[in-house]
Amino acid sequence: MTYYFADHLLLTNGWAKQVRFQVINGRFANLQPDSQMQQHDIHLSKPVLPGMVNLHSHAFQRAMAGLAEVSLNPADSFWSWRDLMYGLVAKLTPEQVYSIANFVYVEMLQAGYTQVAEFHYLHHQANGQAFDNPATMALSVRQAAQNTGIGQTLLPVLYSYSGFGSQPANAGQQRFLHILDDYLRLQEDLSSVQDLRLNQGICFHSLRAVSKHQITSCLEALPKHWPVHIHIAEQQKEVHDCLAWSQQRPVAWLDQEIGLSDRWCLVHATHVDASELEAISRSQAIVGLCPTTEANLGDGIFPATELIARGGRLGIGSDSHVCLSVAEEIRLLEYGQRLEQQQRNRLYNQHEPSVGNYLYQKCVSDGGASCAINSGIAEGNRADFICLDVSYPTLASAQPEQWLDRWCFASNHNPVNDVYVAGNQVIKDGQHKQQDAIHAAMSQCLKQLL
Ligand code: NGQ
Ligand code: ZN
To answer: Which domains can be identified in the chain, with CATH numbers?
Structure first.
């Protein structure tokens, strides 16, 4: 049985030295700090960290990332960006979605993400009809995960309406729509897969897109151990429309009408008041933050400092994929708090005063919970880990406790060198085995699309 030997390894409670471990059936086993290296051990001389969880992705949006940065209108907003995004949606084929997802999943692995929650709502043909196999598009993104080797929580999205109070969907949304029965059938069709790297969850696009009856029916009908994701309060308009419809703000509505719990991932809980923050932390629902996309779309700043003070949970996602860098997401999450409060070092706790260490470990563990997996380097957890190249002078001179702060706050290059998912090496020296073919297919796809 193969043993690995890591000179430095980040356990859930901090850095350990000279750690021997095994991978058995894709999971960490027999983790022994302060060991001696044995003759046939695989020596990991670069520091070993848990892989990061990317708790929110729309893979197809990678095709347009960076192409919506031209002012078309002085009132450009989230909503005008959405119109451009619907323009892309109108064109995509299952083959193109497969090529794009392969490409962005390789970028994720290179960035150090080993698990992605894919919030998948592009279900149907361009005319809005289901494909002969209604799971065709979902299988495109799942097969891209299998092909690239990233762990994936597939979140097929229920989307039926265009606004609060079951307003009819608009022309740009036809490829997203399900009635409840068809959605439940899709979930059933996708649920037979047996793979340590793949699981599944329940997903409502937003409170704009579903009815209360649909939410309660799905929670009733689908497995209770599946996570539940939703876009909740990204834009002020969404909060105002929800208030006009229900006299409640979105998070308050969800908590009072449905009931929050630790199964929920509230993506972009950007606009919350104090009582909503209290409900989120009490329930241990996970807040899904996508700092670079939220900045790109002009969403606003989530009060993460207050959530953490109340013992709440949060993780990061790359959402529209304007950025695939763990360091940049963590840095912007912290910097948003600093800019707003005009103070330094906002996101940490009394056991872990280093912002980089604190946020990295928190986003691994709470992000994992949002995917219903136990993440982090511990016995029994899936063996997802990355090896950092610390030969660069600023990292080489740092103590282990400083590596994450140096990386997250002051690296101008990506130090992620090797990446393993369920014990399989998927990135070696920064490269993926299928990278050339995947890049060629992406180039071909973009030529067709643009
Ligand atoms: C989405 N993206 O579904 O891709 C959304 C925009 C909407 C983000 N929320 C569309 N970042 O919320 O209606
Ligand atoms: Zn989203």
So the answer is: 3-49+384-435 (2.30.40.10), 52-370 (3.20.20.140)
